[in-house]
Amino acid sequence: MNKVYPSAAAAVADIPDGATVLVGGFGLCGIPENLILALRDQGAKRLTVVSNNAGVDDFGLGLLLRTRQIQRMISSYVGENETFERQYLTGELEVELTPQGTLAERLRAGGAGIPAFFTPCGYGTLVQEGGLPIKYNADGSVAIASEPREVREYNGRMYALERGITGDFSLVKAWKGDTMGNLVYRGTARNFNPMIASAGRISIAEVEELVPAGALDPDQVHTPGIFVHRILQGDRYEKRIERRTVRQRS
Prior knowledge:
By secondary structure, the protein is α/β, with parallel strands linked by helices. The protein has a domain of 168 residues: Glutaconate Coenzyme A-transferase, CATH 3.40.1080. Strand 10 and strand 11 form a beta hairpin. Helix 5 packs parallel to helix 7. It is globular, with a radius of gyration of 19 Å. The relative contact order is 0.19.
């Protein structure tokens, strides 16, 4: 069983229109840069993309927004992308906003085969009560609003039901991986990549360094190869940050 692909283009070639694609990364840290570029060039449309962030205008998932390949985003922090904002407010893009920790747990649950769970996060807000605008009409009215969540009381505290998330494809980025798909992440890249790797029906990983099977210390593996179906070595990484603040000395 050969999991190694020669290029990012080959790895994403069969992602169809209308697919649900889970994309790893936290901000611009640990995003699958090569796979996103390849998916842009491949041209799949009407995608539902699940990712904590939406990239920035000219990098990361912002590239897929520019080409209007994304129909719906399920995400948490989207404040650094003007293209995202414009498309959402004009009704071109559907958006399901999810609290950050809840999004991580929905992905982890999906990968673990857990269909739903109760959480106190969001109870008493529009997240639980429903009515959050998912899609606007061109005139600014709401075309699609979120549905209310089921609620239950446990030990005197109220909880809202959240569903696990799975996808057709997962795109993740790791620091190092072996030919069997075992992955090692570094730093902040561990925030979303591990659970996204487990939640896709077909999981595709790009790594900075691809090593032979058996070369990784088993105690250091974060994502076991059983979750990874395709792996490739990325050929370039910009590793941008979202925003740089320069402080003036007084």
